[in-house]
Write a structure and sequence with these properties.
six-stranded mixed beta sheet, mainly beta, 22-stranded antiparallel barrel, 812 residues, 43 strands
């Protein structure tokens, strides 16, 4: 019996499934009986309820019908998964069970690995492209390093595409959304058999959205924070005799986004050490309000910036997978190459021009890179005393970025008397002639990853099994960095190159304090890029036991030793004191679960409890940075210390009839700092107290989805869908400052989506009418410090406002 997920406008099916190394086998097309979902995730047929791994499975139709057909939209359907929105895809990331990695560095791995048809996406940014023609998406919770290895210290998202069919067929979809900026979507897929043994499938897509923010700058005066995406993906699959199959996949996409500008939404506040901590600084607020649109908190939707913040991205890749039977074993080889380019253009001053005391600051940051990977594994036949999979994995990833900041500055003209309470433009006669300053850093990271892995299940009896696995990993990082600046360093830190680095090391070795050595070494610049490297070896693994109380009830308990490789904090304003390799992150994770099937398979209720402790946790620490005499609080990537997460999860699917499905999930997560490891301490306020809740970790998150099909007995049926999500408040900034922590905390909120679909009895034609955010609930997706005069910067998601859509789909 094969695997399928039933869904309407946004259906979600939740269950548990095993996975193999960097891939799970493809879903087949035939429908199971009600209540029974069957997969072949270990190259053998198994019920999801039989496998001791916590995983949420989202159907391809649910992905397609989400507000964004990307991982950002999927987070509304999976309670344990959270998305961190940022100004560019390079800085966006995913969190699972309260754990993830946010960093501007190009030399750090994400904590949540994304795997596309067996290929690990080495860069977090690649994971946020459009998800086109997806069969299913599997979200594995908790460390998954034994089989998935790379980037899987918090979990894995495994994306499985629809494979080519044996007959000519396909589908097409056109959608229009309005009410919060206009969006047009079009996509189509075609199956084309080339011979009895060779099949192909090609998918194309195009999306264009106006944006949900209005830029009132005179040279812009239009909606922004929209996008234009298009791409193509082709799959060629050939049967090589009775026991072998080869799959070739190629894809290309281009994104041109005028997104995502920060909205200045939070007022400047007095700091924790002032006489009125947390109070609004009315003087600074009045000053910026002479230029910027009114600050309206979570309802802010307007900016005044003369440079359109944009991201221009292209990516493509190829992979070849061979599955061959060798006796009663199966040999799998996956070879892949991927190329990725992203250029970030950003308005960093948030004003429409330069002012006296408020320089214009514009950034450009093109990033390019490529990766090659090879995996080879062998799987034993199922239903043996010992079932196992073993293999080897190698990956090489090269990334380079050239980040440049251009500032325009001015001072008051000699003898000029400036008006009070307003900002004076540099174009004013009261201003002296403007000057310019720049800083440009060129840096690269070459990462090598080699691993050997094996996992086995010992079937002690028909109802009791032992699980064990090991993975050996070797990581190596090689870095290059150079920064050049204009005289006076008015746009960045001083020059940093091999001359500065070598002199700094000499001074520190001679006993000079690091901060003093850094200041002295700045004069030793020689214009040659510095180089440095680090490496690490690790053995991680998994052990557990599983017991079937009955065919309907299964329990399990597992222990996993997780691992995440070393890193460097490689970014634009890097200084000698920050060029130290971060230690590998390790974890000890425990999980217990109970999988329950009731009512003859019509109801499944899966429960999981977990506890994990992470050592040398890689995270952004609070720090200070001074450029041009201005000191600001920033986040610096370091080993933040020891953290832990614990909680409970529930997944449920109830399908009493073929026409009604109720599915949902809930997660309670308590993620906190156990022992903080600060950067070099300047004041006691640099230390985050133990017990502080980790950022991007709401205590509670839940989702519920209902689908009902009304069969009218004629040519047309009606489908009804309601889907809701709720999450509690969450902190967004790891800081000891109570004022900043409070100002960067998002209040809890809930969203309800609804839809009605007209369809024929055979589901060949569908016309859907949908409303997102039915009750027009406004919320903030992200909050950052560093706005003008101490104001707070907001990211506002499109779904923070109500909008509607019409979707037409045809299957042939």
């Amino acid at each position: 019996m094969k695997f399928v997920l039933y869904s309407s406008a946004a259906a979600l099916a939740l269950a548990a499934s095993p996975v193999l190394a960097q891939q799970a086998p493809q879903a087949a097309a035939d429908a199971p009986e009600i209540g029974e979902i069957v997969v072949t995730a270990q190259l053998r047929t198994e019920r999801l309820q039989d496998v001791p791994v916590a995983i949420s499975v989202v159907s391809g139709e649910a992905v397609s019908n989400a507000s964004r057909s990307s991982l950002e939209g999927v987070t509304a359907l999976v309670p344990s998964l959270n998305f961190v929105k940022a100004g560019t895809a390079l800085n966006q990331t995913l969190f699972l069970r309260g754990l993830g990695t946010t960093s501007f560095s190009i030399a750090v791995e994400p904590s949540v690995s994304t795997v596309l048809d067996g290929v690990v996406l080495s860069r977090a940014a690649e994971a946020f492209s459009d998800l086109a023609d997806v069969a299913r998406l599997e979200v594995l919770r908790g460390p998954q390093g034994t089989l998935f290895g790379r980037n899987a210290s918090a979990g894995v998202i495994n994306i499985v595409s629809v494979m080519p069919g044996d007959t000519v067929g396909g589908n097409g979809e056109v959608a229009f959304f309005g009410g919060n900026g206009n969006e047009f979507r079009a996509r189509g897929s075609v199956d084309l058999p080339l011979s009895p043994t060779v099949r192909s499938r090609t998918t194309v897509f195009y999306n264009k959205y106006d944006g949900n923010i209005f830029n009132v700058a005179p040279n812009v005066n239009r909606r922004v924070n929209g996008f234009e995406h298009w791409g193509i993906r082709s799959i060629l699959q050939a049967d090589l005799g009775e026991n072998a199959k080869f799959t070739l996949i190629g894809d290309y996409h281009k994104n041109d986004d005028d997104c995502c500008a920060d909205v200045i939404g939070g007022p400047p506040l007095f700091g924790a050490t002032s006489t009125t901590p947390g109070a609004v600084n009315t003087t600074n607020l009045a000053l910026i309000q002479t230029i910027l649109p009114a600050l309206r908190g979570k309802d802010s939707r307007t900016i005044n910036q003369n440079l359109i913040t944009r991201t221009i991205e292209t990516g493509y890749g190829f992979s070849g997978q061979l599955d061959a039977g060798i006796g009663d074993h199966t040999l799998t080889s996956i070879t892949a190459y991927r190329n990725f380019a992203n250029n970030e253009i950003r308005d960093g001053d948030f004003y429409p021009q330069a002012y006296i005391g408020a320089p214009q600051s514009h950034d450009t940051g093109p990033q390019t890179g490529w990766s090659f990977s090879q995996e080879l594994r062998i799987a034993s036949p199922g239903k043996q005393f010992i079932d196992y999979v073993a293999g080897a994995y190698y990956a090489y990833t090269f990334t380079q970025r050239v980040f440049r900041r251009d500032n325009t500055l001015c001072a008051a003209a000699a003898g000029a008397t400036l008006p009070t309470g307003v900002l004076t433009p540099c174009s004013s006669p009261l201003a002296a002639p403007s000057t310019t300053a720049f800083g440009q850093a060129t840096y690269s990271n070459a990462a090598k990853n080699l691993a050997f892995f094996a996992q086995a299940t010992m079937n002690v009896s028909d109802s009791f099994r032992l699980i064990g696995g090991l993975r050996y990993t070797r990581d190596q990082l090689d870095e290059k960095f150079i920064r050049i600046t204009s005289p006076g360093n008015g746009a960045s830190q001083p020059p940093f190159d091999a001359g500065v680095w070598n002199r700094y090391l000499e001074l520190v070795a001679a006993g000079t304090a690091p901060t003093a050595a850094q200041s002295t070494a700045a004069a030793s610049t020689n214009g040659v890029p510095l180089t440095t490297a680090t490496s690490a070896n690790n053995v991680s693994g998994r052990a557990g036991l599983q017991y079937d109380f009955s065919r309907e009830v299964m329990g399990y308990a597992t222990y996993t030793r997780g691992y995440k490789g070393p890193a460097f904090n490689l970014f634009f304003n890097l200084q000698p004191t920050g060029l130290k390799a971060l230690e590998p992150e390790t974890s000890d994770a425990f999980e217990v679960g109970l999988k329950n099937t009731f009512m003859g398979g019509k109801l499944t209720v899966n429960l999981a409890g977990f506890y994990a402790k992470y050592h040398n946790f890689q995270a952004n620490n609070p720090d200070t940075l001074t450029v041009g005499g201005v000191t600001a609080t920033i986040a610096r990537f370091t080993n933040a210390g020891t953290v832990s997460t614990r909680g409970f999860e529930m997944d449920m699917t109830f399908r009493p009839t073929r026409d009604f499905t109720l599915s949902g999930g809930a997660a309670y997560t308590d993620a906190q700092i156990d022992q903080f490891n600060p950067p070099p301490v300047r004041t006691p306020n640099d230390i985050v107290p133990n017990g502080t809740t980790l950022p991007f970790a709401p205590k509670f998150k839940g989702s519920l989805n209902a689908d009902y099909r009304i069969r009218l007995g004629g040519p047309i049926d009606i489908g009804l869908n309601v889907q809701g999500t709720y999450q509690s408040s969450q902190s967004l900034f790891l800081t000891p400052d109570p004022v900043i922590r409070n100002a960067t905390t998002i209040a809890g909120y809930g969203i309800v989506n609804a839809g009605i679909t007209l369809m024929d009895q055979d589901d060949r034609y569908k016309l859907s009418f949908v409303v997102r955010n039915l009750f027009d609930t406004s919320y903030i997706a992200a909050i950052s410090t560093g706005g003008p005069s101490g104001a707070y910067r907001y990211q506002i998601a499109r779904d923070a406002d109500r909008y509607w859509g019409i979707i037409g789909r045809v299957n042939f």
